[in-house]
Specification:
about 450 residues; alpha/beta; FAD/NAD(P)-binding domain; Polyamine Oxidase, Chain A, domain 2; 3 domains; five-stranded parallel sheet; about 25% strand; globular
Length: about 450
């Protein structure tokens, strides 16, 4: 490699920052690389916290087999043996009456590989089921135009005959967990990506999880960075980034410390980046990323005296609606720790924790009847404010590229222009793209 930058400071130790740092080092960067993280641990939204002796992940993250770069990143840092993915798409749904339905693929060509599941899906009528075929068939040939970026996925579904009942009972159960917004709040391109990569892609739509707690991602990435010559500094919050444009960028920490480097790669959320960049620098951006909207995620953890759940996870329809996880799946105490993940929580976000926990227990007692015979030993609500940006119609114009053409400054984060929504895959892709921009632009 010719004319590498002498020094790079990566700000942010979430997936995007970790992916960028490991990519730089894996591709032969041998200058000074420092990663600054404001928290005392790495991982950002894919990390783990301690709560009364419990190790609680910040979200029960699932991946799909089509998360190409995320899965490659996990393998690169040494977690390949921890990746567990379904042999075929299979997802179970339950409602407040205790009714159970499944969506699973078979060996028939898409979209017919889901036909038998949809025909037998017990939560919607025959008319609703028939309305599902139009979007699936249309998506096989659909290519959106630039103007379609202003159209919501919900509008596109309705134009193809989708009933409101099927939107509420099935489409939103697919879109809300993946995009953290309803079909009417996401743009057509983002909704179409989920439709094509989850429902219509037999190879890429299989669900999976990482065995063990999420904190192993940050730990393994840190080991990789430091074993390849980089440095990781925790508990180092940044107050200001000043890309002076004279070959030296200044990063000021909240404790008054200064870190100087030739390149700064910011991997913090856009709403935070806006606060730590000087106004003259913000005025140079071509995309006003600070206009992105953000949404929260809630995770309600319930600890019971005995096992109440015999599945690894299922989609919960109606009521508090979300995905329910058996956190201790495949362990001796399987089923005694249940977590309901609430994406796009709406008014539930403003409910006090005790009332929310009581509501969740009440509503889960039908799909999980053993709850009524078990004692609740403990509970916790983890609130992730501004967990993801909303990919609403028009939001693509606010997503800045990884190279904003501001000397010395590069960007990573799932909110940047990756073509992907706010997912683990989008975060890793952004880090890889930023690293490649730095190395590809280093011939100065």
């Amino acid at each position: 490699m010719v004319d590498q930058p002498e020094s790079i400071t990566v700000i942010g130790g979430g997936l995007a920052g970790l992916a960028a740092a490991t990519r730089l080092l894996d591709r032969g960067y041998d200058g000074e690389l420092i990663l600054l993280e404001r928290a005392p641990f790495l991982g950002g939204r894919v990390s783990t916290v301690d709560y009364k002796g419990h190790r609680l992940d910040l979200g029960q993250h699932m991946h799909v087999s089509g998360f190409e770069f995320y899965l490659e990143f996990l393998a690169r840092i040494g977690l390949e043996d921890k990746i567990r993915t379904q042999p075929r798409l299979e997802a179970e749904f339950r409602d407040r009456s205790g009714k159970i339905g499944k969506v699973e693929g078979n060996n028939i060509l898409p979209p017919f590989h889901l036909a038998s599941s949809l025909i037998n899906f017990p939560f919607i009528s025959l008319i609703d089921k028939a309305s599902f075929a139009g979007p699936l068939l249309s998506a096989l040939l659909f290519e959106y135009e630039e103007d379609d970026r202003q159209v919501s996925f919900g509008d596109w579904l309705r134009r193809r005959g989708t009933t409101q009942r099927s939107i509420e009972r099935l489409w939103n159960q697919i879109i809300i967990p993946t995009l953290n917004a309803t079909v009417d709040e996401v743009s057509l391109p983002m909704g179409m990506m989920i439709l094509k990569r989850v429902l219509l892609d037999k190879g890429g739509g299989k669900l999976g999880r990482l065995d063990g707690n999420l904190d192993q991602i940050g730990e393994k990435a840190s080991d990789f960075i430091e074993s390849h010559g980089g440095k990781v500094r925790l508990s180092s919050p940044v107050s200001t980034i000043d890309p002076a444009g004279d070959g030296e960028c200044r990063v000021e920490l909240t404790d008054g410390g200064i870190v100087k480097s030739e390149i700064v790669l910011s991997a913090v959320p856009g709403y935070r980046l806006e606060r730590i960049l000087p106004e003259p620098t913000l005025n140079k951006f071509s995309c006003p990323f600070w206009n992105l909207n953000w949404n929260s995620i809630l995770n309600v953890h319930l600890f019971f005296s005995e096992g109440v759940m015999d599945r690894e996870f299922f989609g919960f329809l109606e009521g508090t609606a979300g995905w329910v996880f058996n956190v201790n799946w495949n362990e001796p105490n399987s089923g005694d720790h249940v977590c309901l993940t609430l994406s796009d929580p709406g008014e539930l976000e403003n409910m006090n924790s005790k009332a929310l926990i009581n509501l969740v227990i009440q509503e889960l007692s039908a799909p999980l009847p053993r709850i009524e015979d078990a004692s609740l030993l403990d509970s916790a609500v983890l609130h992730q404010p501004k967990a993801t940006f909303k990919p609403d119609p028009g939001s693509s114009s606010f997503r800045q590229s990884q190279n904003p053409e501001i000397p010395g400054l590069y960007l990573a984060g799932d909110w940047t222009d990756t073509g992907w929504p706010s997912t683990m895959e989008g975060a890793v892709r952004s880090g890889y793209l930023a690293a490649d921009e730095i190395l590809g632009s280093s011939n100065r």
